[in-house]
Design brief:
The complex is a heterodimer of chains A (about 110) and B (about 120). With about 110 residues, chain A is mainly beta. Chain A has strands spanning about 10, 20-25, 35-40, 45-50, 65-70, 70-75, 85-95, 100, 105-110. With about 120 residues, chain B is an all-beta fold. Helices cover about 0% and strands about 55% of the residues of chain B. In chain B, the strands form 2 sheets. In chain B, strands 2, 4, 5, 6, 9, 10 and 11 form a 7-stranded mixed sheet that branches. Chain B is globular, with a radius of gyration of 13 Å. The chains are: A mainly beta (about 110), B mainly beta (about 120).
């Protein structure tokens, strides 16, 4: 199974919006609505931020939103804040009943 | 509040066996599926496999021949064994709870280095 494709880095200024893409295949991202996004800050455990493509867990800010079109899922963060600076990983269920992650995207808040 | 904590040796010699345990607090290991995930230095996340307390398992095909997982309900723990390790197995290893099709609770992670 190949890793999902994410941009290595994105950046934005406070208050702006950014979008991170996650491209897979019809055997993972495109085939199921089981795409999740994880926020990973240094020294902390990864945190589930979006599940089932567009659902937010309790306690996650509504500035985070997810969507999917075909084989590409996206995470959008609006009203960017300094505390959003982190690595973000997408993950998807696959047709092999396994899970695959993206390579991660480093978000820098300028 | 559910918490997961990985434990095990931080250094393993090449060709030997890596063994890690995840202790679950605030929840029962009989309630959910549980996974292991790792992150090599400077790289992305890699799913290793999952286990259910009944013994049901599934593993990443790239690791399947070397991986074993188990659950100890009496200790509320689950474990990972990875055989015949090489330097490529050096990584931060995470345990995580699976809720539906997402990993909703993660441990802090433990660095395992494979070196002689």
């Amino acid at each position: 199974q190949s890793a999902l494709t994410q941009p290595a880095s994105v950046s934005g200024s406070p208050g702006q919006s950014i979008t991170i893409s996650c491209t897979g295949t019809s055997s993972d991202v495109g085939g199921y609505n089981f795409v999740a996004w994880y926020q990973h800050q240094p020294g902390k455990a990864p945190k589930l931020t979006i599940y089932d493509v567009s659902h937010r867990p309790s306690g996650v800010s509504n500035r985070f939103s997810g969507s999917k079109s075909g084989n590409t899922a996206s995470l959008t963060i609006s009203g960017l804040q300094a505390e959003d600076e982190a690595d973000y990983y997408c993950g998807s269920y696959t047709s092999s009943r396994t899970w695959v992650f993206g390579g991660g995207t480093k978000l820098t808040v300028l | 509040q559910v918490q997961l904590q990985e434990s095990g040796p931080g250094l393993v010699k090449p060709s030997e066996t890596l063994s890690l345990t995840c202790t679950v607090s605030g929840d029962s290991v009989t309630t959910y599926y549980w996974s292991w995930i790792r992150q090599p230095p400077g790289k992305g996340l890699e799913w290793i496999g999952y286990i259910y307390y009944s013994g049901s398992t599934n593993y990443n095909p790239s690791l399947k021949s070397r991986v074993t997982t188990s659950v100890d309900t009496s200790k509320n723990q689950f474990s990972l064994i990875l055989h015949s390790v090489t330097a490529a197995d050096t990584a931060v290893y995470y345990c995580a709870r699976m809720d539906e099709q997402a990993f909703d609770i993660w441990g802090q992670g433990t660095l395992v280095t494979v070196s002689s």
